Write the structure tokens for this entry.
Amino acid sequence: MTDFVRVSLPNGHEATFGRAYAEANDLDVIDAPATNSRGLPLPASRKDGRPAKRKTSVSKEAAKKAANKKSETPASADESTNGGVAATPEEATK
């Protein structure tokens, strides 16, 4: 099994690499656990332990918001039918 170490990256994140790779690339090895209780390497995270932020562009978020807004708008009165029931009292008197 590969010997894993936790390294500090220049962008402020921490990641888990194999010891040979970290030594070959002169990475800053830190004294922190590199594997979980099952021996699997930990994912990359920020220094405080929170996961790295997802990279989503503004245009993608705007497209999601527009799609949600479009699906939430109710149908107009012209498109819907009331099954012959008057929608307003004025229609009933005609």
